[in-house]
Amino acid sequence: MTPSMYTHSVPVFKQMLTALKTMLVQASEHATAKGIEPDALLQARLFPDMFPLIKQVQIAADFSRGIAARLAGVDVPAFDGQEKTFADLDALLTQTLAFLDGVNASQFEGKEGTEIVLRPGTPKEKKLSGQTYLANYGLPQFFFHVTTAYAILRHNGLPIGKRDYMGSY
Length: 169
Known about the structure:
Radius of gyration: 17 Å
CATH superfamily of the domain at 12-107 and 145-166: dinb family like domain
Structural class: mainly alpha
Strand content: under 5%
CATH class of the domain at 12-107 and 145-166: Mainly Alpha
Low-confidence stretches: none
Distance between the termini: 22 Å
Shape: globular
Helix content: 55-70%
Largest sheet: 2 strands, antiparallel
CATH architecture of the domain at 12-107 and 145-166: Up-down Bundle
Number of strands: 2
Strand order of the largest sheet: 1-2
Mean pLDDT: 96
């Protein structure tokens, strides 16, 4: 039997977002200990044309909720994206993890062929099967933003490594 799309998404999102949540706590503590203005880390970027840390975290959370909701057949929860502090990001990730806890494997059954429409009604509209949406679009997007958040923190001196990135599994 092929593992379900649930198995390849929700537990992975929870693992990675929990690890990201832990790294953000470490970043906040690091900023305090080193006398670094928290906003210097929250607004840090790897390159000027890339989003800052705060936006990378928001987008990773958005992708995890959006993917899980679309594949489970429930409404995508909306968040206002107004996070400004480490505490705000912690609350966002806590809410996101709670949402992910609320979806279950049975909601994903048979959704491999379900049509997922991205950016409906726009020139960028794209239609994908559930399987393609998860494997070729959703997971790569999610990992890009989690990895970029990790890289920003590491680049700015946070003493973290692969174990921190991976979290508990």
